[in-house]
Amino acid sequence: MRSREDFGSVSRFRPHPWHGLEIGPEPPGILNAYIEITPFDLMKYEVDKVSGYLRVDRPQRSSAQPPTLYGFVPRTYCGERVRKLAPKAKRGDGDPLDICVLSERAISRNEIIVRGRVIGGLQMIDDGEADDKIISVLENDYIWGGARTVSDVPSVLVERLQHYFLTYKLVPGQRSAARIAKVYGRAHALKVVRAAIADYHDNFPL
Fold first, then answer.
1. How far apart are the first and last CA of the chain?
2. What are the C-alpha distances in Å from 83 to residues 27, 28, 80, 178?
3. Residue-wise pLDDT tens digits, 151-174
């Protein structure tokens, strides 16, 4: 009869996806991404910071759908170090670092962990807060897995990401508080990931 020890370290409780999961096998270049939203979702889901369960944040107001898998990198935090990399931001947004994952095959489930290879990002400023969106490709993906920087994927995919993030909170008759200061490549994206890891350790010391 097999014991629990045969399966390694097993927690009696579900680990919190932000604090209980690993950053990834080779940070800052290859990361784990906890997926909150898929390209098929017309609801905005977000992890509840207290319980770790996924909750409905709001229905999507517009017809825009996320063009990629979208979630966050465990054990990261957008604080002062991330803010310093976005000179036009007043502060970090106080959330884990967002990540988009390109996948050639459709993935329709959320609340899953996928492994993403970092290739770039969007420097988004939302109401004065640094709200970077790291762009990655699914590790070992047969179409996108060979990409190493953002210029290795069609520009239209990056344009779709920009359009989505600039419109998904848009309210008719109101001016958007979000803007994308720049699209950056892998080198700067790695700096953002490193900063978010350091911000996490500053705010959630062991």
1. 36
2. 20, 18, 5, 15
3. 999 999 999 999 999 988 777 777
Amino acid, single-letter form, for residue 137: V
Contact 56, 43 (CB under 8 A): yes
Q: Residue 73, exposed/middle/buried by CB under 10 A (0-12, 13-18, 19+)?
A: buried
Q: Give the pLDDT of residue 98.
A: 98
Closest to 193 in 3D by CA, of 154, 136, 126 = 136
pTM above 0.85, yes or no: yes
The whole-angstrom separation of Cα 190 and Cα 98 is 13
Give Cβ neighbours of residue 204 (< 8 Å, ≥ 6 apart).
19, 75, 77
- Dist CA 116 CA 26 (whole Å): 10
Contact between residue 67 and residue 104 where contact means Cβ atoms under 8 Å apart: no
